[in-house]
TrEMBL record:
Source species: Nonomuraea cypriaca
Protein's recorded name: Thiolase
Domain Thiolase C-terminal, residue spans: 237-379
GO molecular function terms noted in the UniProt entry: acyltransferase activity, transferring groups other than amino-acyl groups
InterPro entries documented for this protein: Thiolase, Thiolase-like, Thiolase_C_2
């Protein structure tokens, strides 16, 4: 094991998701509390066992304190790293490091949002950009449209190829009884849906949902005595370079290349050895670029890769097998829900969408307009 490696030393021992479309009156912290209760129970623990808390929120400026007060938790280690939707992949690496260092024994990562119930009431102007908003930039769709235009110009990517990304997500969602829309989606459906910001259509954009999720981690040694099948952290990497799209060095290449390279190296695996991939899909174009940067296809070939059927059921890369943000859930930040689905696949608990023999999963989160990235390679025991 190389210096700085966390490979196989920490395991996920409990997961939960709640109210992944629309909540029935719960608050964001209430969703966090219920998901946490279920994940802790699955792990065979009680709330008092949790001594490490990791969370991020668009609702609370100090979410670890809000949550601790709400449930009566007294952690000895907290982390509220906020880098957008990939915060929770970052938290996995941070929690693994803290557990290995003895700073906590049982770490809880949790998140909750009532974005759908709020109907757009949550609007933040805390980081208003004088370089974007005065010119009509509507975050995040306008920056993503700029990125799509550039990828199309540079590599010949087409709207039809982007539509194939959304169609594949819906095909996976049809295998997930918890997904909200159980009707097929076609390329024509995507292309005939309203243009939100050219060239992106309505179905190029993620859902807007409520939802809460949580997972519990501990050392591999402690995990052996707990009831749930442990899923191990094999590799981890982070990278970032901008907050606003006007600060993005290259509109078609991201720092995901770096975060993924670090995670693959720590795990000792190559992209070709990944059994399932769980990659942040806020928009079809962002997912397509991330597939390139994560090494699943060459730069500029994402459109052809998606168009070939590679990411649909039966394709070469089982991707976002629950339907992802495009067709399952997207409560403001998706990162934690990517992790829970990866754990289900590696435990063999994914039902009709289960990939036989899945042993290694790549989970990748992005933050904001492809500015922050965190990659986690997870593995079943046979992958150690």
């Amino acid at each position: 094991m190389t210096r700085g490696s966390l490979r196989g030393e920490v395991a996920i021992v409990g997961i939960a998701e709640v109210d992944t479309f629309q909540s029935d009156g719960r608050s964001p912290v209430g969703l966090m509390a219920e998901a946490s209760r279920q994940a802790i129970t699955e792990a065979g623990l009680i709330l008092g066992d949790i001594d490490g808390l990791f969370t991020s929120s668009a609702y609370y400026s100090m979410p670890s304190l809000t949550f601790s007060e709400y449930v009566g938790l007294h952690p000895r280690y907290t982390d509220s790293t906020a880098v957008g939707g990939c915060s929770f992949e970052a938290h996995v690496g941070h929690a693994a490091a803290a557990i290995r260092a003895g700073l906590c024994d049982y770490a809880l990562i949790t998140y909750g949002s009532t974005q759908r119930s709020d109907k757009g009431k949550l609007v933040s102007t805390a980081e208003w950009s004088p370089y974007e908003q005065p010119y009509g930039m509507w975050h995040p769709i306008s920056p993503m449209a700029m990125i799509a235009q550039r990828h199309m110009h540079q590599y010949g990517t087409t709207s039809e190829q982007l539509a194939e990304v959304a169609v594949a997500a819906r095909q996976w969602a049809l295998r997930n009884p918890a997904a909200p829309y159980q009707t097929p989606l076609t390329v024509d459906d995507v292309l005939s849906s309203p243009v939100i910001s050219s060239p992106l259509h309505k179905f190029d954009c993620c859902l807007v949902t409520d939802g809460g999720a949580a997972l519990v981690l501990t050392s591999a040694e402690r995990a052996r005595d707990l009831p749930a099948t442990p899923i191990y952290v094999l590799g981890f990497g982070e990278a970032a370079d901008h907050r606003n799209v006007t600060g993005m060095p290259d509109l078609t290449t991201t720092r995901a290349e770096e975060s993924a390279a670090r995670a693959y190296a720590m795990a000792g695996v190559r992209p070709s050895e990944v059994d399932t991939a769980h990659v942040y899909d806020a928009f079809t174009i962002s997912l397509l670029i991330l597939l390139e940067d994560l090494g699943f296809c060459a730069k500029g070939e994402g459109g052809a890769f998606a168009g070939s059927g590679a990411i649909a059921p039966g394709g070469s890369l089982p991707l976002n097998t629950n339907g992802g943000g495009l067709s399952y859930t997207h409560p403001g930040m998706l990162g934690l829900f990517l992790l829970t689905e990866a754990v289900r696949q590696l435990r063999g608990q994914a039902g009709d969408r289960q990939m036989p023999g899945a042993a290694i999963s790549m989970v990748h989160g992005m933050g904001l307009t492809l500015g922050a990235h965190a990659s986690v390679v997870l593995g079943a025991e046979r992958a150690l």
